[in-house]
Structure to design on (620 residues):
């Protein structure tokens, strides 16, 4: 009885004190709240308003009526989207390209990092690292120029080599057959140096006495790498891979938009969710389809991120996002 | 004595050969572009792009020099947006990261979550575009080039972690006892200690703004606000347009024949890539350090 009274007593006081407490907290940490303000405003316009604006996918957007007055149409936009051939194509392309990128990052970049670490001459190794890190600093527009110098049908470097070797030149920007390979190569070119430096940082941190112990037991350097170094690297590879798997529904717009030069005949193999949304918004003006595809990406993407993070947490709590 | 935890000489030579091939693959396109830019246009049209220039000519550079005002203007936009954007972004991020790093700040978890949620769920392009164009009406203004990259959630979390792990609570406490206000403590005590992380995030910001072509692609129609990357994008589109429509426009074939479009486009690329390559040896080290800071959990 007395306990209950005491309990309700505290309740009353907290209720009474709640508002002043919040004001007191605001006054006490006034400066800290002011410091948060600019960032909060930026997040509001860049992230939170668009987050609520996502409901536009359920409207028939009309430029004249604007956002608020456009009519609600339920799932109409989604019906159109998923009845079109595009929905399947962009989903397939987005996922398959990401799978390829993830596998390459977890293999080629790891091998490269190991080689950087093994080379006997440190300075030469640093030089290779610097050169291979360089493509990371180029924008996709610049890279599209570089790729064009290679693939231009009448003047490109690759066709010149094909011709001088007695082979038929290829109309690269019209022929979709080679594009999955081209996209993967270009992406590898840009990112492998970057990825390998992250793995190299992990390798450098490993305790060298473990290799010595293995050497005493008669292990060759190659065996030390495959039996000692790679197993130690596995958690890093797993976590970085899972973080990328979490982003499997998102792609790099610039890669898929600039490198194929927005070429129509290549859409079947180069169109991904981002490029589809952009073209629907800016080129065909189909807001309904664009926002439905965006909504689809946001929701499925969210589920995938949460799942991937859940698995990362199980493996290595410190590496999970939350 | 042999060193048993190193590879042997033969393996080293083999790996060096592999690395040299990879290095060549990395720089080959750059060399081709550079070589094309200093080659005579007719030679390029006849023999195509090649690794070594034959018939040297600076015609392409002279040609783009005619448009020097356009290029300088685009450079100006890029430099302005990069300087102002990177600085504003660094300030916004640091100001936000500090309170949420303070263990004695009551609502730090709420404000951390507000940042964090944006990494998980995102409204996507359409509503974001509409906020800029229909709510803020900042399309075709310089703000549309700066605002998109002011708060990168990951950078906020990296900076918060840095503040939490490297700045001892005691120092902040001592400053308070000495009578320093919150803001004074932040500016005079915390920021000087956070130089490494500020430098790293500053550099990543600079790279983001320097390389941006996406914001102008979405929001900029006014040619005066084209930045360098977007100018390159537009020049490329214009050349494609001219060559595809060469037959349908009067005299266009003739214009095309005189216009060093192939070499000029590559000269343009060199002008845009140049500063990055020249500055690269100086800032590369900080990026590598930054990548390791970035791998710390947010």
């Amino acid at each position: 009885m007395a306990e209950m009274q005491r309990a309700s007593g505290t309740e009353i006081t907290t209720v009474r004190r709640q508002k002043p407490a919040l004001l007191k907290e605001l006054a006490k940490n006034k400066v800290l709240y002011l410091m948060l303000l600019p960032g909060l405003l930026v997040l509001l316009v860049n992230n939170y308003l668009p987050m609520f604006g996502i409901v536009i996918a359920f409207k028939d957007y009309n430029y004249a009526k604007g956002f608020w007055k456009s009519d609600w149409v339920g799932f109409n936009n989604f019906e159109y989207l998923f009845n079109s051939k595009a929905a399947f194509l962009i989903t397939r392309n987005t996922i398959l390209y990401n799978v390829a990128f993830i596998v390459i990052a977890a293999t080629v970049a790891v091998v490269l990092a190991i080689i950087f670490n093994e080379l006997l001459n440190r300075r030469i190794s640093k030089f290779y690292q610097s050169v291979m890190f360089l493509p990371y600093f180029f924008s996709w527009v610049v890279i599209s120029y570089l790729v064009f110098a290679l693939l231009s049908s009448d003047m490109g470097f690759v066709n010149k080599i094909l011709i001088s070797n007695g082979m038929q030149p290829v109309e690269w920007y019209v022929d979709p057959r080679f594009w999955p390979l081209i996209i993967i190569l270009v992406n590898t070119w840009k990112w492998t140096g970057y990825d390998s430096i992250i793995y190299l940082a992990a390798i450098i941190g490993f305790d060298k006495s473990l290799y010595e112990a293995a050497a005493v037991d008669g292990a060759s350097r190659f065996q030390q790498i495959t039996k000692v170094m790679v197993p130690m690297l596995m958690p890093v590879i797993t976590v970085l891979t899972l973080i990328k798997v979490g982003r499997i529904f998102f792609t790099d717009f610039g890669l898929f938009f600039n490198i194929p030069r927005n070429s129509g005949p290549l859409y079947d193999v180069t169109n991904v969710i981002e490029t589809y949304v952009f073209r629907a918004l800016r080129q065909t003006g189909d807001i309904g389809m664009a926002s439905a595809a965006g909504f689809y990406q946001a929701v499925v993407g969210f589920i995938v991120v949460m799942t991937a993070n859940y698995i990362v947490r199980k493996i290595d709590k410190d590496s999970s996002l939350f | 004595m042999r060193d048993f935890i190193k590879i042997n000489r033969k393996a080293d030579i083999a790996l060096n050969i592999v690395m040299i091939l990879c290095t060549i693959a990395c720089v080959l396109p750059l060399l081709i572009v550079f070589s094309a830019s200093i080659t005579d246009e007719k030679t390029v049209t006849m023999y195509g792009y090649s690794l070594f220039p034959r018939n040297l000519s600076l015609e392409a550079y002279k040609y783009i020099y005619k448009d020097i005002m356009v290029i300088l203007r685009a450079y100006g936009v890029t430099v302005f947006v990069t300087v102002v954007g990177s600085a504003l972004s660094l300030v916004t991020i640091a100001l936000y990261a500090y309170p949420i790093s303070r263990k004695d700040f009551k609502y730090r978890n709420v404000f951390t979550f507000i940042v964090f949620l944006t990494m998980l769920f995102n409204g996507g392009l359409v509503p974001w575009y509409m906020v800029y164009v229909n709510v803020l009406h900042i399309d075709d203004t310089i703000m549309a080039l700066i605002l998109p990259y002011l708060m990168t959630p990951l950078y906020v979390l990296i900076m918060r972690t840095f503040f939490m792990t490297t700045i001892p609570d005691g120092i902040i406490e001592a400053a308070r006892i000495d009578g320093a206000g919150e803001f004074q403590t932040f500016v005079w005590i915390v920021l000087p200690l956070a130089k490494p992380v500020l430098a790293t995030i500053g550099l990543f910001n600079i790279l983001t703004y320097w390389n941006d072509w996406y914001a102008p692609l979405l929001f900029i129609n006014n040619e005066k606000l084209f930045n360098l990357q977007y100018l390159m994008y537009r020049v490329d589109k214009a050349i494609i347009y001219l060559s595809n429509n060469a037959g349908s426009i009067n005299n266009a074939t003739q214009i095309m024949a005189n216009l060093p479009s192939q070499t000029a486009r590559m000269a343009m690329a060199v002008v845009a890539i140049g500063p990055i390559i020249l500055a690269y040896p100086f800032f590369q080290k900080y990026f590598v350090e930054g990548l390791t800071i970035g791998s710390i959990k947010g």
